[in-house]
Amino acid sequence: MTSSFSHEHSPRAQVDIDLDAIRHNLTLLGARAPGSQVMAVVKADAYGHGALPVARAAVEAGASWLGTCSLGEALALREAGITTRLFSWLDAPEADFAPGIEAGVDLGVSSTGELSRIAAATPAGTRARVHLKIDTGLSRNGCPPAEWAGLVEAAAAEPRIDVVAVWSHLACADEPGHPSIDLQAKRFADAYDVARAAGLDPMRHLANSAALLTRPDLHFDLVRPGIAMYGLNPVPQDEDLRPAMTFRSAVALVKRIEAGESVSYGHTWTASRDTTLALVPAGYADGVPRSLSGRMDVFLGGRRRQVAGRVCMDQLVVDCGDDEPAVGDEVVLFGAGTRGEPTAREWADKLGTIDYEIVTSMYRPRVRRRYLGERS
């Protein structure tokens, strides 16, 4: 086995982000919605991939908008030199909207109270760009239908407000054919008609990654790819999406144990034969869920190998049988799956969650990020 994990500062673990994969994915997704603008969603530090490098790659791939959840996320991109149109849609009630308005950040609005706070924060001589959100059935953020006409009328009458768009979010787009999709689409159309009747001429945006891939009738003026941009497919469809994140570490210690010896806390795993163990300095403090103990593999020395015993805070142990890895050999915890290594989706399936949660949890102080495919 050959060592391939010799980088400066000897990180315990490393996440590699393939920016070329992100560019590829976004180009593919944009081609699926040729009549729509593309908003690359980079909220939550770009789903754990790093907001600024991903934002730059997304713009290079043709995104004309970037989507963030919080105003702070949007302003950090502005301060880093991103000039692309930015959209931010959810902040605490005490948020100061003035810096965002001054920086040209579009703001999501779900209530007349929020609209009033934004209007009050708008500097004289300027207009805040807002996207009015209608709750079409997710029952989360968004204006209830019974209050929609009032919000639209207030926005249309406010001279400090420029209504750029009407938008909403689908609850079950990742379940193609779910009856809620058509119901939400109908409610969205009705809400848009109300806005038009009030004299507004807004854009429309509704499609997330799943709807972008499965419902071209819902692409409208703008699509909002999120998880698919990172190469993780939200629908059971054969798309040429490339996972952008690889989580890796390296062998720190190799030892031989005899049959009958047990490994890690609680002695939940006992060797059935003499075997070689490889110690990997990555544990649940580094993003390896302890709940994967006893049911996870890693990719080491050209093949998948079982993790022996419980995942600890700082380390895990790999059963290598009669193979003897070298200290420093690469260990892939999850990646694209092209070599047979585990994937983020595999982790998610075993944990009963979604791959969104796996990748967004990978921003940790002890795990170094490395970017592949950066352009000057």
UniProtKB/TrEMBL annotation:
Its EC number is 5.1.1.1. Pathway: Amino-acid biosynthesis; D-alanine biosynthesis; D-alanine from L-alanine: step 1/1. It comes from the Bacteria. Keywords: Isomerase, Pyridoxal phosphate. One of its GO terms (cellular component) is cytosol. Residues 244-372 form the Alanine racemase C-terminal domain. This is Alanine racemase. It comes from Amycolatopsis balhimycina DSM 5908.
